[in-house]
User: Fold these one by one.
Assistant:
Number 1:
Amino acid sequence: MMTALNTEAKVVACIDASPYAEAVCDYAVWAAIQLQTSLTLLHAIDKAQHTQTPDLSGSLGLGSQEVLLQQLAELDEKQSTLALERGRFILAAARARAEQAGLSAVAEILRPDTLLNSLKSLAPDLRLLVIGKRGASSAEEHGQLGLHVEQLLRTLDKPVLLTQQRFKAPLRIMLAFDGSATAQKSLAMLAASPLCRGLLVHIVLATGRAEDSQVKLDAAAEQLAAAGFTTQTAIIAGEPENVLNQYQQEHHIDLMIMGAYGHSRIRQFILGSTTTAMIRNAKCALLVLR
């Protein structure tokens, strides 16, 4: 049965040739159904990444320079054409997968531009971005983030759902909570959104004074309970990027939720932040809220 969708705000899925593509599509379908909104599949072609032909214009002999430069230009054109054809094939396969899962009116965008520029153009109508933890160019670099992923998280002012290579429909979610203004904003966004409605929420606070922490957790649990969530709270000791991921694995959490980086200019360029470490070490899908 096809699901009718609201097209006012959309879920956008970044689809490429990486091993994450199917999971990205499946998580995007799940999110679009939960949010009752439309799905757009985006494949961006960065010419700088797809063109491997070196610039030899300065080292060519006078007699052969014109012919070879013409051949290089033709090769560039063929590579661009091939990249476009490959992108159309990838998007068509993702669309068929989404429609088979029950979505109607799935849109496709094939854009010859960088991923970041492509997403900036879609930002006004973007409700949730779904992207793999790593893209095609860095899929095998385990323990690291894809270059585009880190750029997006630091510049795009939208919620981002980062996927692993396999889809698992979320049943248990975890909110990384420390009582800060960022965490309170994430709590309010979770309470107001239908994305995770009906799922068990673990509200987990790492470190902090026990008395003060418990008060914060109780208040957070009450806020989610008022929105119809079932909650479970926990205070754990240790470095957040380590103990929160450990808690996730021990309690079989399917989706972790946390606030994004701070908004100061200095913090935007700190690569060793808790947020980045958490994302790098996460063993499940992770929703980063802004």
Number 2:
Amino acid sequence: MPESPEVQALADALGERLAGRALTGVDVVEFRVVKTRTRPPDGLVGQHIERVSRFGKLVDLGFSSGAHLVVSLGRHGWARFGDGASTSTDAPAAAEPPMLASLAFDDGGAVELTDAGGWVSLGCWVVDAPRDVPAIAKLGPDPADPSFSRADFDRAFAGRRKQVKAVLQEQESLAGIGNAYSDEILFVARLSPVAHAASLDDAELDRLFAATVDVVRGAIDARRGIPIDRLKQAKVDAMLVHGRTGEPCPGCGGVVQDFSFASTTAQYCPQCQTGGELLPLKG
């Protein structure tokens, strides 16, 4: 699932490429992508893009009329330039994900919105303001925002009898973090992912706050300037424990393990995070 560092890099790349460009055509291949049926994206044809922004894990294309095209990448969505203008020197993937919608612009270029999943998770809204999209309206503070404070963090965690990994991924509490970066944050903080937020002492909360800010902002800095067709791989390559099951822990040399979380699996180091205790896996 795309998370805030990669979505920020994507928004930056789209903004650099599209600012001032006029939308000349829209091709929706999969009708389920459009969530505002009375305001389809082709109603924006002829308007110029003024800016591209990120809200949590969503991308907002702001147009000259004041309208916005908001894109939720969902679990497997992404974007690519449709005119062969990638700056990556890597060989293309053997099987690219299908294009579900395409936006054409007056420079002859296009942005294709894709979804690699077995079900459609990509979504688009045409709205007057980004907060008209429910997923944006409910967002909590974003650790990438320079104004994000310890008070914002404390409000998310204080007194919560909920596992810290779940709180980190709860978009109403903290915007933009998903399964991968929550694993990374908890590893850096040396905390068990299943500990309840209410059980953390002051020193543990200090470590968790610092790790949350440092991991998210560090990843955003690291992804800056990477071609959008390389961002997903760059994320995978940078992970310390997420997706590293069976590999040596970079902290202690122990073995990174899986555990069950919600409807998926996540990774952690027992020696560094749980005092050697193995967390359960569904059989």
Number 3:
Amino acid sequence: MSIDKDLLDRLMEGRSPGDLFGQTGILAELTKALAERALSTEMDVHLDEERADNVSEGCNQTANRRNGSSQKTVTTDSGKVVLDIPRDRNGTFDPVLIAKYQRRFPEFDRKIISMYARGMTTREIQGHIEEIYGVEASPSLICAITDAVMEEITAWQNRPLEPCYPIVFMDAIRVNIRSDGAVSNKAVFVALAVLPDGTRDVLGLWFQANEGAKFWAKVLGDLRNRGVQDILIAVVDGLKGFPPAIEAAFPQTRIQTCIVHLLRHSMNFASYKDRKTVAAALKAIYTAVDAFAAEMALTEFEDSDLAKRYPAIAPSWRRAWNEVIPFLDYPPEVRRLIYTTNAIEALNSKIRRAVRTRGHFPSDDAAAKLIYLALNATSNEWKRSVREWHAVRSQLAIMFEDRFPMA
């Protein structure tokens, strides 16, 4: 419903555009007037409900009624506003709009959380709040507001998951975390899953200084405890200890190494002038029609002058061969999706953008808080459905038959 233009003209009469904002601006006045009107309506409803309850229960006690008001200063988007909060004689009125012990409108808290999620430091948020709203927000207040999401994070980390995920991408980012007076570089592992309908979801975050089979057993055990019974394809970037751990937890899962990461690793050994030639030679391996043709292409590369010039490249492919060849069994539609972990790398780039402003975090929880908020702030981008999923889904349903979850 649009607001009447004549009413707006009357409100703005005698005022300049500069009189809109700030503690003495018209928005603050409107906030006060509308809030007090809403509180008065809440009180009317509360008293009516109490009277109705008394009648139904046959009570003869004196009906509750208004008992003046008390003032409360609350922080809003327009600054601080003094509200007249209505009171009742029985002291049973607890307003919904602004609860008894609440000193800030919820929208004000959401703005602080939004700024924090975008990587702004506590000091930057402080300055922004003071500059825009004329309100002094202490560091402890900002921490208290953002810390309030920790219960939400715990619930998210322990939420039930789907029984089967067609594809799960695993990757990590590095963050600096202070522990026992020293700053250590920890990996934060992220699991990005493709759901049966083609949409994506982050299954969780796991912190670890060093990866290994024991760590991955814990991660995969966590997924099992939360309801995951099967993963069709796990796309990873040579994670140490991952293959034996996933074989124990999900024995039917196919492990696929990220081809792009393997290519980048190979390019690190080649001089700049030879990189295009090396890339073309390696392309013959991962675009081969089947594993036999790929083996022939790799053998041909091993016998070439390029391999002799850069002797570390071919062995790196041989070491990862068991995780490369599953890729060659898939049709083109599936290959295009699992060829790279770019899907999760794009997600990680958004996380890195948020954590870049922090030199280090005081704890794992502090890092988890920012990462979780950053994920929520950008969810509309990374949760989008996989392109051409209908074609991929059809191929996966054929390949994995009764294991593929049908909606």
Number 4:
Amino acid sequence: MARTDFRLRVLMEPRHGSRYDEILALARATEDAGFDAFFRSDHLLGVDANDRTYRPTDCWTTLGGLARDTSRVRLGALVGAATFRQPGLLATIVASVDEMSGGRVELGLGTGWYEREHAAFGIPFPSTRERFDRFEEQLEIITGLWRTGEGDEFSFTGKHYGIEANGATPRPAQDPHPPVIIGGSGPKRTPAIAARFANEFNGALGGDLRDRFAVFARACEAIGRDPDEARRSAVLPVACGSTPREAARRGEIMGSEFMRANAVIGTPRQVTDRIGELREAGADTVYLHIYDIHDLEHIALLGAEVVPQVAATAVA
């Protein structure tokens, strides 16, 4: 069942990395343009691992800054790498940023996939199966810590992680806890894990979005969960321009042919129409994937020409 509160968000993944002042400028532009949320990727390398100009920043450190330097937009990662941080620490980090923001944080989390990135920063990169096992245990711990009541203790014993009688559990501002976003194209473990833990399922890029949402719905039904309890979201790489030349110029900045193949590169009307197609496929939230962190005029154009059209269509 489609939700009436359709959400349009910005996802930042700058081609050559960024500094905090650049991230903040884009986040504030997103807020001013009327978007629902500002999300960032959780990467320490760019698509080109040999790009010596790439400037890495830590995802949750910058989100903590944005929590204090913005006032309205929701904030989060799409999606964080579970391999980067221990679950008890991550639960505390996210709860801290949630409190700093007044309850505007969402946790997007995945298994991690970029092996070269892990090697470059000395982060272990287990097999796919082990990463999924660890990911599931992390979600058990993070949500378990957040849901533990005052005066109670949380313990967990798994194959990869353990928590021993934690009576000082992290306290996010949101009740019961920040929304958890899980997504991907995997046909089995990803939707099964999302059915257990996700407040939002993201259909990722490429492939049949409608089919991925259906697989997620079946995974929910298999454990007795109403699939409509969770939101469904999509990512849309965007290069929007008032003229074809302007749109094409913005499209050239996208990081890969895969992104361009799944992008909309065109006018505000074309962007709006593509968002409408994603909504018809079942998405109630769309993240516009932006690559040029310095192009604040791009955000302003989307805010002026696309956000109002999408809002009008959503309530029609």
